Amino acid sequence: MTTILITTANGATGRPMVDYLLKDGFNVRALVRSDDARAQELREAGAEVVFGDLLNFRDVRAALEGVQRAYFNYPVGDGLVEAAVMFAQAAKEQNLELIVNMSQIQSRPYARSKATQNHWLSEQVFDWSGVPTTHLRITFFMQWLLYISGLIRYGRYVMPFNGDSRFAPIAGRDIALTAANIFASPEKHGGQIYTLTGPVEYSHQELAAEVSRVLGKDLPFEQVTVTTFLELIGLENDTAKLKHFEAVTIDQQEGRLAGVSDAAPSINGQPLVTVEEFINENRSLFELDYTKPAS
Q1: Are 42 and 18 in contact (CB under 8 A)?
Q2: Where do the structural domains in the chain lie, given as residue ranges?
Q3: What's the rounded Cα separation, in Å, for the pair 149 and 167?
Q4: Of the candidates 38, 44, 39, which has an alpha carbon nearest to the alpha carbon of residue 22?
């Protein structure tokens, strides 16, 4: 039976991908950093859980041993290209049938963001390896709304991006389902690049209005600096995100995240999650719970 390795198996795409693949009858090996409650949930779901660091070649080789297909995803931060080189080498040694690589919609060689440029370089690394690879170029996740859910609870909708900049946010589980369907047909999708967006394009101001409508509360769009934004969400010491978000602010103004792609619904054969559905699925995170006593 085919075994598929899922990196970042507790993440917004990795966790639902594990469930989709198990449901489809694949063996799933889930790579995580630590043995905690989330790792136990993966075991209980039916996955084989392994531990390791994508920047440790010994760990990567061990994780890919006996695997036929693999999902590569790396968080915003230093080390992406090095991790891709190690992953590609280990995948080549194992003669993998397919890698699905998470990239960015604005991936290009001369990107302002080092993180974005490194995604483009990683795409090249996987292509050079000769291992069939599908690159998923993703727009902003709907999970961005969860970054500011604590602010939304108190009536603030804050973003570091220009209010007129446009994009079509996509839910993590739609990306996961797309990857799962690609894994099911490697001969069809290997070597392809797919741009994945959500079903509806919004400006940031329009998205704030849609969130306001769904929650039934007034949430005027508020633009702040990237530094202030990271302070508000508790990531003030994350230098990698600071530099990346500052560059993406310009990418947005240049329209590099604008537009809607039909790749994900075509591959999945079903409509994508809407912003309204996403908010309702996570509604408790956006609303104050008045049943709890004040602290």
Answers
A1: yes
A2: 3-140+170-196
A3: 19
A4: 44
Give the list of residues 6+ apart from residue 283 with CB closer than 8 angstroms, or none.
Answer: 215
102-160, pLDDT tens digit by residue? 999 999 999 999 999 999 999 999 999 999 999 999 999 999 999 999 999 999 999 99
Handedness of CA 202, 207, 211, 214 (dihedral sign): negative
- Whole-Å CA distances, 82 to 39, 90, 114, 135, 187: 26, 12, 13, 17, 27
Q: How many residues does the chain have?
A: 295
Strand partners, 170: 141
Say if CB 165 and CB 240 are below 8 A apart. Answer: no
> Would you report the helix, strand and coil content of the chain in percent, each value rounded to 5?
45, 15, 40
- Written as one letter, the residue type at 177 is L
Whole-model pTM above 0.85?
yes
| CATH number for the domain whose boundaries are 3-140+170-196 | 3.40.50.720
- Nearest 10 degrees: Cα torsion 101, 105, 263, 69: 0
Token digits of residue 282 = 């996570």
For residue 9, CA distances in Å to 14, 87, 110 come to 4, 16, 30
